[in-house]
Design brief:
single chain, mainly alpha, 14 helices, 3 strands, about 65% helix
Length: about 290
């Protein structure tokens, strides 16, 4: 997030000019807070110097002048040293004060950013998505998350794209999000982590109601197979959709069970044995070992 040094307008978008006054005076709020903290510290140092000079000016003897000068120099030195030690704390405090003092304006400015991003929906969806993504780093609400998910459905998703999932997860069920999770299981299953597994488990029945619901759930089960920890944590999900796993994912599960026969649980092992007997008992890729149900 940046702030205009001239009119103190906030923006979360990657702008070159202030959206309010039009001047090229936007700086990161952290940089602005550092400048504020340094000005405050410099003011304290100048006050300490002034006190020392006043002491010297009011001295009646040379000895008093020397003592006041030495005391003033010591005060300035100690103050400078302390300020160096607490610089990070003062910067954070200045940033907190800035955000607290301008809460109303911050809210208004971020809402203006949202309107700016949303105004490009019909003409440039890629730009809208990027603007909403920038804005979502500060505005954490389901509306912006769902708008990003909706925009992603207009794109041909590829593995080399900078995709995310966890920042887009919402509290309630949404079919667009479920469908997006299903697409990620095909091109970037490493993004499917605990929070996504929990979301799918919470809304498994709703996802099953979708036309491609079983495929989505099977894709999530296949994503779990990439790590032993996930298979152990979500063994029920893996077991329920193991019959729909592609051969490569089931082979990975098969070998994982072979390597950890006492950890995977009887129900998952039995289901894997059934699928093996039904589909793969004559497949040469599965002949190195066999599952004992």
């Amino acid at each position: 997030m940046t702030i205009c040094k001239q009119c103190r307008t906030f923006t979360a978008l990657d702008e070159q000019q202030c959206p309010a006054c039009g001047k090229s005076s936007l700086v990161p709020v952290e940089q602005y807070a550092v400048s504020t903290a340094k000005r405050s510290m410099l003011t304290s140092l100048l006050i300490a110097v002034f006190i020392g000079l006043v002491g010297i000016f009011l001295s009646n003897t040379l000895l008093q002048m020397v003592l006041c000068g030495a005391a003033g120099l010591l005060l300035v030195t100690l103050l400078w040293f302390v300020q160096r030690q607490v610089m990070t704390h003062e910067m954070n405090r200045a940033l907190l004060v800035l955000l607290q003092q301008d809460q109303d304006r911050l809210g208004q400015d971020l809402y203006r950013d949202w309107e700016t991003a949303f105004s490009n929906w019909d003409t440039d969806k890629q730009l809208t998505y990027e603007l909403l993504r920038e804005l979502s780093t500060l505005l954490h609400n389901d509306t912006i998350r769902l708008q990003q998910v909706a925009l992603l459905h207009y794109f041909a998703l590829r593995k080399d794209m900078d995709l995310v999932l966890e920042p887009l997860l919402i509290t309630n069920y949404d079919p667009l999000l479920a469908d997006y999770i299903g697409e990620l299981t095909k091109i970037k299953r490493d993004l499917i982590k605990d929070s996504a597994f929990q979301y799918v488990l919470n809304y498994e029945l709703e996802i099953l109601g979708l036309e491609n619901g079983q495929d989505i759930l099977a894709g999530v089960a296949g994503a779990a197979v990439r790590m032993k920890r996930y298979v152990l944590s979500y063994s029920g999900l893996v077991r329920r959709y193991a019959h729909k796993l592609p051969k490569d994912r089931f082979l990975r599960l098969y070998r994982m069970i072979q390597q950890n026969p006492h950890e995977m649980g009887d129900r998952l092992t039995s289901e894997a044995h059934r699928i093996y007997q039904e589909k793969y008992q004559w497949d040469p890729d599965f002949q190195e070992s066999s599952i004992r149900g």
